[in-house]
Amino acid sequence: MAVVIGPGGVGKTALAVKWATEHAHRFPDGQLYVDLRSFSPDTALTPFDALGRFLRALGVQPEQVPATLAEQLGRYRTITARRRLQLLVLVDNAASAEQVRPLIPTSIRSVVLVTTRIRLDGLVGDGAQLVEVPPLPQAKAVALLTKLVGGDRPGAEPDAVAELAQLCGRFPIALRVAAARLITRSHLAVSEVVAQLRDERSRLAALSIPASPEDSITTLFDWSYHYLQPYEAELYRLLGQLPAAEFGIGVAAAVTQLAAHEVGVGLQALVDASLLQEVGPDRYRFHDLVRLHARAQPEQHRLEVIARAGAWYLEAMTRANLAVIPATLRWRVGPTAEQLSGEPPAFTSDRKALDWLARELPNVLAVLEEVAADRHDELAWQLCEALWEPMLYRKPLPEALRAHELGITAAQRCGHTVAESRLRYQRGRAYLDLGQPDAAEAETLRAIELAREAADRRNESAALEQLGRAWQARGDVDTAITHFTTSLNIEAELGIDRGVANRHRRIADALLQAGRAAEAGPHLAAARQILSTAGDDKDLARVAISEARLEGQFGRPEAAIALLLAAREVLRRSGSVVYEAYVLLALAEVDEHHGRPEQARGFLTEAVELLRDLGGPVLEEARDALAALDRAVPAAQPAIPTTAPPSTEESE
Fold first, then answer.
1. What does the angle CA 163 – CA 169 – CA 174 come to, to the nearest 5 degrees?
2. Averaged pLDDT of the chain
3. What's the rounded Cα separation, in Å, for the pair 115 and 138?
4. pLDDT in tens, 90-115
């Protein structure tokens, strides 16, 4: 017995019937088919009626069909008890195990196929195999549209056909409706239908105009929705408002204000009803069209859902951020970190916290868009500030630019000058990491103006240090050192020892870039001495990278490599592949300069592999270095690098 489960319109019946047709030769004693009609406006077929049909199909004369269900069941079992009987029974649109069990033949050589929208755990407990039917793969959805529409239009607009498949959620029924619209309106381009369907508010209605109402995708979802208990239906409506692509029990409990165990039961009910997908431990998502159906239901608490989701993500992100950069090492404008300061750590390591942040980042960005659109401005700018740690360690830089556009606007609407200064500083850092020093300088100068306007010396100092990095990226070392020194003096006035140490390191890096190794040494010594008590192992690892560059300029490659390998181990534990890749690039520079191109090639290849899934400027830098090495004449000895190393300062 196989139970074929999936949402309405996904193609369960078509799949089961096609399989039955293709395998008819395996069942010489016949095939029985019954539609129980559990999810249609018609009255559902009872087991009594279904068994009566089966008995007549098996040769029982109509007048000899028993008058009671028990007698029918006995007769059916007797007929199907022949040892070698090979029968296929297809039970379509079942809603319960009780509907199906009377229809199971006795012969163990027979096969039963059941299609349903509800997870029939009772049948699974009886030994049935569960076959979940998702929407079509993208390539198959495109192929179906191309075949249905025919002619030259699909081939002329391949991108539009691909988008149309996505807008249909890759549901066969929706694809058929969209194809029918194109077939009956030959003057329409595919892109015109795509434009009509892009509006989420009208998409379901546009995909629900078939010849028969029971083929309407809205009607199919309606019947599944009507099977829900009242609190399950409320959960469905509320979670449909959540813009996150995936979510867990925590945020679901926050937006519904139900206890976690109640939400867990409700989520499982939605999974069982094929209205929600369980994609991992405590991870759920809607099919795109199902989400639109949930959003189409009347729900008066939509705005509360967005605000509750934003508040939950802010707290959860802050807990993760504190595991990456503790409150003692980074000042935050928003109050959430201070409010959570008495809690035990939420993560056991930097890496686990960063992995969680990376997984949730798409959801946070989607929620931020809605939070900003609904003008929950205090929440919006705080969510944006909380993107600092994932932005630095995992580098989703284009996404960060968009998020900070929203956050800065929200801070302006709040009249929160300090928050705007902070977010402009953060946005400037994204530009700096993207290799755009002019844009970085513009944002950072505005951050300095706002900080001075608010008499906010901490933000002013951080922005001055970043301004120095922008000038260093242009190669103007003297101007960079001037800004670093001004920032160092402010840190000293404020009594922030760690800040003083990090400015010493910045000055040293600029001096090393200028080839002034002798002047850099005292600054690195000062940084190491201060950070031995005021920093953490990541701070010391960054100093070690600078010390390795110093050793390289003094012609001591083995000492440089030892420092870099130790730094790599620390930064690898931190969970940032970007910072680990920085060390690999530095190791490659040392080996290449000292005539070891194969070792350099190994480090560069490792950096490329490490960054392959992440992308970004550092990956391009590693690829360019590897390509340059491959082109180089083996005997050629490149000059000692004089460019500034990639920035690893993360905690201003």
1. 100
2. 90
3. 23
4. 999 998 999 999 999 998 899 999 99
How far is Cα 155 from Cα 157, in angstroms, rounded to an integer?
A: 6
Kind plus residue range of the DSSP H or E element containing 129: strand 129-132
Residue 642 has pLDDT above 50, yes or no: no
Whether residue 345 contacts residue 223, with contact meaning beta carbons closer than 8 Å, is answered with no
Task: Determine what percent of the chain is predicted with pLDDT higher than 70.
Answer: 95
Backbone angles phi, psi at 7, to 5 degrees: -70, 160
Place of tokens 């130790």: 566
Above 50 in pLDDT, residue 586?
yes
- Each residue's pLDDT tens digit, 258-268: 888 889 999 99
> Per-residue pLDDT for 649 more than 70?
no
Kindly compute the dihedral angle of the four CA atoms of residues 583, 585, 587, 591, in this order, to the nearest 10 degrees. Answer: 180
Residue 558: exposure state from Cβ atoms within 10 A (0-12, 13-18, ≥19) = exposed
Which residue blocks in 415-496 are alpha helix, DSSP H?
A: 417-433, 437-453, 457-474, 477-494
**What does DSSP say about strands 88-94 and 283-285: parallel, antiparallel, or unpaired?**
unpaired
d(CA 110, CA 84): 9
* Pairing outcome for strands 31-35 and 88-94: parallel
- Give the 3-state secondary structure of 260-282: HHHHHHHHHHHHHCCCCEEEECC
Cα distances (Å, whole numbers) of residue 173 to 54, 163, 216, 217, 565:
29, 16, 8, 7, 57
Instruction: Work out the angle at residue 479's Cα, subtended by the Cα atoms of residues 474 and 484, and round it to the nearest 5 degrees.
Output: 105
Condensed to tens digits (0 to 9), the pLDDT of residues 182-223 reads: 888 888 899 999 998 998 888 888 887 655 555 567 877 888
For the record, the structure tokens of 360 come out as 């949730």
Task: Report the run of H or E that residue 113 belongs to, with start and end.
Answer: strand 111-116
Q: How many helices (H) and strands (E) does the chain have?
A: 33, 7
- For 453, other C-beta atoms within 10 Å of its C-beta total 13
